[in-house]
Design a protein that fits this description.
There is one protein chain. The protein is α/β, with parallel strands linked by helices and 171 residues long. Helix content is 25%, strand content 35%. Strand 1 and strand 2 form a beta hairpin. The N terminus is likely disordered.
């Protein structure tokens, strides 16, 4: 499998090291059918009865769309606050991550007792996943697992990933 991104370490007035992502190609060039199938297969190892794919703005949409199509499941996009049209009925969550505040919107859907899976490109502190989890729960759904391409291994959360930061070169 090819390396999807290059990571550089730096310290910028945080108690922990901040990881800065530098993409060496466009996100569309990094998504392959092989990797999308690998994510789908990881999901099917544990679940065969999911109802929705939940993916956050912006590269999560790309991965989520591919995997949702392979699984033949609908995708619910989670947008940064203010990106959905004002006429859209939505649920908004404001949450604090280790390094920033996050504010996300999801179109209101009846997710009562629906099983959802989170798909994104990178998992670092878990803030986006946890905010998405709260959004899904506010709409009556269940979101227990995160599936990502790259787990940076900052958090102690259990994450399903294709590769981890241990698998790639860090400068």
């Amino acid at each position: 499998m090819k390396i999807l991104c290059h990571i550089e370490k730096s310290t910028i007035n945080y108690s922990k090291e901040e990881l800065q992502f530098k993409m060496h190609s466009s996100p569309l060039e990094t998504i392959t059918l092989e990797e999308s199938i690998a994510l789908k297969d990881k999901i099917l190892e544990k679940y065969n009865d999911i109802d929705y794919i939940i993916s956050p703005d912006a590269r999560g949409f790309l991965w989520g769309t591919y995997v949702a199509a392979l699984l033949e499941k609908p995708l619910i996009p989670v947008r940064k606050h203010g990106k959905l049209p004002p006429s859209c009925v939505m649920t908004t969550i404001s949450d604090k991550t280790e390094y920033s505040n996050i504010e996300l919107d999801i179109p209101i859907a009846d997710l009562t007792n629906k099983k959802c899976i989170f798909i994104d490109d990178v998992y670092a502190t878990g803030g986006t996943f946890k905010a998405c989890q709260k959004l899904v729960e506010q709409n009556g759904g269940i979101l227990n697992d995160a599936y990502v391409v790259l787990d940076i291994l900052i958090s102690q959360d259990e994450v399903n990933s294709l590769i981890t930061s241990n698998d790639i070169k860090i400068d």
